[in-house]
């Protein structure tokens, strides 16, 4: 065999072996990156390739071991072929040019090593990996038959190496797993929604709805309720006429209390009173106490989660619940509408005042929000996580941060460094400034929010 033919044969063999390496690399990444749900859907439609691919993804650890065996063997084979065929051939060519034998041998071996490394890395590893990630489902289905055959033929060998690895893992107190967990936690889903929103793949409105849906199961009655200071109730001894007069202001349901506001004895509804001729104060019906028309109240603790509250309301056939604290006192009231607001945002209802609605955009990175605005809603608004504590509203956060009841004009800056959110449209925010605009009953009624860029970002912008 001539020198040139030897080198050419070596190059061809290396390329063929590299293609085999690429096959195993593509196999490894395709089955790790593929969407199993899409495979299940295709398999349900009768796609044989998807069905075989789905079977392989159910044995992730075994498949990875088989792919690693193939990658290792083909990598070693490429190196084994390169030196005697390519390296020796180059050494002979250099010898013909009167290059010293030692230099020629070293140069030939080095060139052969570089050639194999570059070809294996670029074509056998990187190209195959990126292709598999970009076309995971397509490749997973295309490689399913050959992968199944490979694992069946070389399964015993793969099993030996797999068992050896398991023994070593258990020796260092690590429990091996046969499959990769593809389930996502709520926190993982939040990150997925956030990334999809930031890249523009998910509409802003839809991302907010998904965020709220993920938070819904953890939200409590105390979080969603109308707080006690905003609750309008009626004494049990009040007349029907008096109740109708109160309902004329826009309330369709009123909690009925006995000795005091904390002693909730029932709930009176407008529709129950409309059948009574009580709109005239001088009528006999109008002078009847509302106690006789009150329904049994649905009473829930503040810490009860909203799905459980809904179940209680559904079971009782009611739409109104009274929320009590750990001491038995009335903490607030909760309607189905309030629960719906946790999913779709603020809905104008009988309990809402003008200052309890949505936020107002004052300027870029500046908003005006009610003091009762939920901390979770502020987080969605500014795109940053805020400190958590024993409060539900931005007003409560301000009170805890200041350590006192605030006054109009009070400011507090929250450090936002370390937040996972990255705003690509402007300077990275360094703090969120909370300013009390006005107060009501000694607590913030409205709060001005300002995202302040970090000092370095401001200097760069200037």
From TrEMBL:
<feature type="transmembrane region" description="Helical">
    <location>
        <begin position="61"/>
        <end position="82"/>
    </location>
</feature>
<dbReference type="InterPro" id="IPR036318">
    <property type="entry name" value="FAD-bd_PCMH-like_sf"/>
</dbReference>
<dbReference type="Pfam" id="PF00571">
    <property type="entry name" value="CBS"/>
</dbReference>
<protein>
    <submittedName>
        <fullName>CBS domain containing-hemolysin-like protein</fullName>
    </submittedName>
</protein>
<feature type="transmembrane region" description="Helical">
    <location>
        <begin position="102"/>
        <end position="123"/>
    </location>
</feature>
<dbReference type="InterPro" id="IPR051676">
    <property type="entry name" value="UPF0053_domain"/>
</dbReference>
<feature type="transmembrane region" description="Helical">
    <location>
        <begin position="6"/>
        <end position="26"/>
    </location>
</feature>
<keyword id="KW-1003">Cell membrane</keyword>
<keyword id="KW-0129">CBS domain</keyword>
<dbReference type="InterPro" id="IPR002550">
    <property type="entry name" value="CNNM"/>
</dbReference>
<feature type="domain" description="CBS">
    <location>
        <begin position="293"/>
        <end position="350"/>
    </location>
</feature>
<dbReference type="GO" id="GO:0005886">
    <property type="term" value="C:plasma membrane"/>
</dbReference>
<keyword id="KW-0812">Transmembrane</keyword>
<dbReference type="Pfam" id="PF01595">
    <property type="entry name" value="CNNM"/>
</dbReference>
<keyword id="KW-0472">Membrane</keyword>
<feature type="domain" description="CBS">
    <location>
        <begin position="225"/>
        <end position="283"/>
    </location>
</feature>
<dbReference type="InterPro" id="IPR005170">
    <property type="entry name" value="Transptr-assoc_dom"/>
</dbReference>
<keyword id="KW-1133">Transmembrane helix</keyword>
<dbReference type="InterPro" id="IPR016169">
    <property type="entry name" value="FAD-bd_PCMH_sub2"/>
</dbReference>
<comment type="similarity">
    <text>Belongs to the UPF0053 family.</text>
</comment>
<dbReference type="InterPro" id="IPR046342">
    <property type="entry name" value="CBS_dom_sf"/>
</dbReference>
<keyword id="KW-0677">Repeat</keyword>
<feature type="domain" description="CNNM transmembrane">
    <location>
        <begin position="3"/>
        <end position="206"/>
    </location>
</feature>
<dbReference type="InterPro" id="IPR044751">
    <property type="entry name" value="Ion_transp-like_CBS"/>
</dbReference>
<dbReference type="Pfam" id="PF03471">
    <property type="entry name" value="CorC_HlyC"/>
</dbReference>
<dbReference type="GO" id="GO:0050660">
    <property type="term" value="F:flavin adenine dinucleotide binding"/>
</dbReference>
<dbReference type="InterPro" id="IPR000644">
    <property type="entry name" value="CBS_dom"/>
</dbReference>
């Amino acid at each position: 065999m001539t020198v040139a033919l030897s080198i050419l044969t070596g190059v061809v063999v290396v390329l063929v072996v590299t293609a085999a390496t690429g096959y195993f690399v593509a196999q490894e990444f395709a089955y790790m990156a593929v969407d199993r749900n899409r495979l299940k859907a295709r398999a349900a439609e009768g796609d044989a390739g998807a069905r075989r691919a789905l079977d392989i993804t159910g044995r992730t650890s075994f498949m990875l071991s088989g792919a690693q065996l193939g990658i290792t063997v083909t990598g070693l084979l490429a190196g084994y072929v390169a030196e005697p065929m390519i390296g020796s051939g180059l050494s002979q060519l250099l010898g013909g040019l009167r290059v010293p034998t030692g230099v020629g041998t070293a140069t030939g071996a080095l060139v052969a090593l570089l050639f194999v490394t570059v070809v294996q890395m670029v074509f056998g590893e990187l190209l195959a990996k990126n292709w598999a990630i970009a076309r995971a489902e397509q490749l997973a289905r295309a490689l399913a038959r050959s992968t199944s055959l490979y694992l069946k033929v070389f399964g015993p060998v793969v099993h030996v190496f797999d068992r050896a690895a398991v023994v070593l893992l258990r020796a260092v107190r690590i429990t091996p797993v046969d499959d990769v967990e593809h389930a996502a936690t709520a926190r993982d889903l939040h990150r997925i929604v956030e990334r999809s929103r930031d890249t523009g793949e998910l509409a802003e409105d839809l991302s907010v709805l998904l965020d709220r849906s993920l938070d819904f199961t953890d939200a409590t009655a105390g979080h969603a309720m109308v707080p006690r200071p905003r609750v309008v109730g009626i004494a049990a001894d009040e007349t029907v006429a008096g109740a109708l007069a109160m309902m004329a202001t826009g309330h369709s349901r009123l909690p009925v209390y006995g000795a005091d506001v904390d002693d909730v004895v029932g709930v009176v509804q407008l529709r129950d009173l409309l059948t009574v001729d009580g709109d005239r104060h001088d009528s006999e019906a109008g002078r009847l106490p509302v106690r006789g028309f009150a329904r049994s109240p649905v009473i829930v603790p503040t810490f009860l989660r909203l799905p459980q509250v809904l179940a209680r309301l559904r079971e009782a056939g009611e739409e109104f619940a009274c929320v009590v604290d750990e001491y038995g006192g009335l903490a607030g009231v909760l309607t189905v509408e309030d629960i719906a607001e946790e999913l779709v945002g603020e809905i104008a209802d009988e309990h809402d005042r003008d200052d309890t609605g949505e936020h107002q955009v004052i300027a870029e990175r500046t908003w005006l929000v009610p003091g009762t605005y939920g901390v979770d809603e502020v987080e969605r608004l500014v795109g940053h996580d805020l400190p958590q504590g024993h409060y539900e509203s931005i007003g409560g956060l301000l009170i805890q941060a200041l350590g006192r009841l605030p006054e109009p004009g009070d400011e507090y800056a929250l450090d936002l460094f370390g937040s996972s959110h990255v705003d690509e449209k402007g300077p990275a925010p360094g703090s969120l400034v909370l300013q009390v605009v006005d107060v009501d009953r000694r607590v913030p009624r409205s709060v001005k929010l300002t995202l302040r860029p970090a000092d370095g970002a401001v200097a760069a912008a200037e």
